[in-house]
Write a structure and sequence with these properties.
six-stranded parallel beta sheet; 45% helix; globular; binds zinc ion; Arc Repressor Mutant, subunit A; single chain; binds adenosine-5'-diphosphate; Rossmann fold; disordered N terminus
């Protein structure tokens, strides 16, 4: 890769760098202001959602200012990808981490001394080591960029103690601008990172945490595998992540998918390190692979073209759900966050909290976090509105890109049903689980019913007008509403909460969300969503696929992920405008000078064949 570097000297103007190095025509959002602020020597805190384009906010100043920019990044894999992508664009970037040999380190040090590196990525532990700080003090540093800055906070989910030491930067390098960047939406974490990095005087740049290109869909679990299959239909060739709660379920699901002809690999902390790394690598480098994973997977994964994130089990909180689904669509292309959840998930999560080792106060917080997510699952309103409200954002309109907006949820007046349910629970002594309660309501004469004499209860058979599935839905929603709860100590017995009283007495009306129809309807929705990925013009689509194949070939040759060569968006653009010369190729979004020189002809040839 060396030797092909484009001389960056002379390209001192941010818009020129944007165009010539990155092949992009305009800045997005506040990128330009952030870049100008940092280039004026001031500190910045950049709080933007995933995919907003935070990297350019430090990469461009790094290329415009004299000296080397130091980028702190928590993960070696993340670093490797970013450096590779930069090198592909002809940028003089390097990474310093524990995987390098002594010779490689010596080489980087020599190039630093000769001012031949514009961006240096380092891990926090490497940065604060004495030797390295000493080396830095002899160099001209343009800026410090602290990426994934939420890692400094214990409130965040990715706490990294080494980040704490980054506060030395301010004292050791007083004149050098510092930037902290993160996509975390949690206010507590934000305050914490600003404080710990001593960035109290820095200007804070932030934008809405909305991810408009992600379509949120939450379906009631019925036959989860069938529902998943229906969702996956029409998504062949797309990369996606499927999250499951347990390692066992990860393996079973992955195996089952392979049996269904969907290529997938498992990922969880119980796998051998080498297997895990190989599976992650395959996911990054191959097109159209589905990774089935526990939450052990994902931190720092920068793959831009993950088209869907599916949850087969309920996450622990809105933060977790938002972060996990947020791994879809970093490239801004239409993507999906899909989840199937049911009563079982709710019970399982509550039990995990009850049985967990956390102190009482923490358990209370965990319960509240779970309840907030259940609220989103059961809402009849726009999902995005509910999600963003949790992060303190108010939307002026519904999003139009979630299941509630696309297929408005129907509600039904459940006041009577709720009373019948509460009465059945109460009269049978609050000692039975949902199956038996439903049998009472539906008037099923089972052995257990007869033995308990429940066929003589006044509520016996009063709910025969509703089927068992509807009753399950009623029980789930009454649980989420807090009128009943599941007693895990008593083998899942349903019990009444105080708030059930006015409902039971008929003083409070209840509206239930009508569960969505099963797979058949899902399938129709899936094809509709699919229509957005496929170009209107079938010939463009065929060309796009051919361009992808060429990209994969080139990526394999070099052992790099395809997206460091070109993003899907660039290939789509090529397929649509069909450049016929290197100059025209250079006009395509994402095709900078170095990439155009290097790959232009190969892709032009593919376009020529499709002429
Ligand atoms: P983040 O770090 O905020 O998650 P990235 O820096 O990885 O986001 O950028 C996400 C995507 O947006 C990348 O594909 C990048 O090329 C693209 N991008 C960033 N800035 C622009 C821009 N000004 N115009 C077009 N695409 C952009
Ligand atoms: Zn919506």
């Amino acid at each position: 890769m060396q030797g092909e570097a484009v001389k960056t000297t002379g390209l001192r103007e941010p818009t020129a760098v944007l165009r010539e190095v990155f092949g992009l025509s305009t800045f997005r959002g506040e990128q330009e202001q952030i870049i100008a602020h940092v280039m004026a020597g001031r500190d910045a805190v950049v709080l933007l959602p995933t995919g907003a384009g935070k990297s350019l906010c430090f990469q461009i100043p790094a290329l415009c200012l004299d000296g080397v920019a130091i980028v702190v990044s928590p993960l070696i894999a993340l670093m490797r990808d970013q450096v590779e992508a930069l090198r592909q664009s002809g940028v003089r970037a390097a990474a310093l981490n524990s995987t390098l040999t002594m010779d490689e380190v010596a080489d980087i040090r020599a190039r630093l001394a000769d001012c031949e590196i514009d961006l240096l990525y380092v891990t926090p532990e490497r940065l604060v080591s004495d030797g390295f700080l000493g080396l830095l003090s002899r160099l001209h540093i343009s800026l410090f960029a602290i990426d994934e800055a939420h890692c400094i906070s214990q409130w965040g989910h990715d706490f990294r103690p080494e980040y704490m030491q980054l506060s030395v930067l301010r004292e050791r390098f007083p004149g050098v601008p510092r930037m902290a960047l993160t996509a975390t939406a949690n206010p507590q974490t934000r305050d914490d990172l600003i404080h710990r990095l001593q960035l109290d005087d820095a200007r804070v740049f932030s934008a809405s945490f909305d991810r408009p290109n992600i379509r949120y869909t939450i379906v009631q679990k019925d036959n989860a595998r069938g529902q998943l299959m229906a969702f996956l239909q029409g998504r062949e060739g797309q990369s996606g992540i499927i999250y499951c709660l347990s390692r066992k379920k990860v393996e079973e699901t992955s195996e089952w998918l392979n049996g269904q002809g969907i290529r997938s690999l498992p990922y969880h902390a119980g796998l051998d390190r080498s297997v895990r790394d190989a599976n992650q690598d395959a996911f990054l480098k191959e097109d159209g692979l589905v990774l089935v994973a526990t939450i052990a997977f994902g931190m720092g994964i920068d793959k831009p073209d993950v088209r869907f994130v599916a949850h087969l089990d309920l996450p622990s909180s809105i933060e977790a759900y938002y972060q996990e689904t947020g791994r879809a669509g970093r490239d801004g292309q239409p993507s999906e966050g899909w989840m199937a959840y049911g009563m079982g998930d709710l019970v399982q999560r509550r039990r995990m909290i009850d049985d967990g080792a956390s102190p009482v106060e923490v358990k209370r917080v965990e319960r509240a976090a779970l309840d907030a997510l259940l609220g989103v699952c059961e809402t009849t309103q726009c999902r995005r509105r509910a999600l963003l409200a949790h992060f303190g954002e108010t939307m002026s309109e519904d999003c139009g890109n979630c299941d509630s907006c696309l297929t408005p949820a129907q509600t039904w007046n459940g006041t009577e049903a709720a009373r019948k349910l509460l009465s059945a629970i109460y009269r049978s002594g609050q000692r039975y689980g949902s199956g038996h309660i439903i049998d009472i309501l539906r008037g099923q004469v089972t052995e257990k019913i007869t033995r308990a004499g429940h066929d003589s209860l006044p509520t016996f058979g009063v709910g025969a007008d509703l089927d068992a599935k509807t009753w399950q839905s009623v029980i789930r929603q009454m649980t989420v509403l807090g009128h009943i709860s599941v007693d895990n100590e008593a083998f899942g017995a349903l019990i009444l909460e105080d708030s059930a009283r006015p409902v039971l007495q008929g003083h409070q009306a209840i509206e239930f969300r009508r569960d969505r129809a099963g797979p058949a309807k899902e399938r129709k929705r899936a094809t509709r969503a699919q229509a957005e990925y496929v170009s209107d013009n079938p010939e463009d689509e065929a060309l796009f696929q051919a361009l992808r194949a060429e990209r994969l070939r080139l990526a394999r040759e070099q052992g790099v992920p395809p997206y460091v060569i070109f993003h899907d968006a660039s290939l789509r653009d090529m397929a649509r405008v069909r450049p016929s010369s290197v100059t025209e190729m250079g006009e395509v979004a994402g095709v900078g000078a170095a990439k155009c020189a290097r790959y232009g002809r190969a892709f032009l040839a593919v376009i020529g064949e499709h002429g």
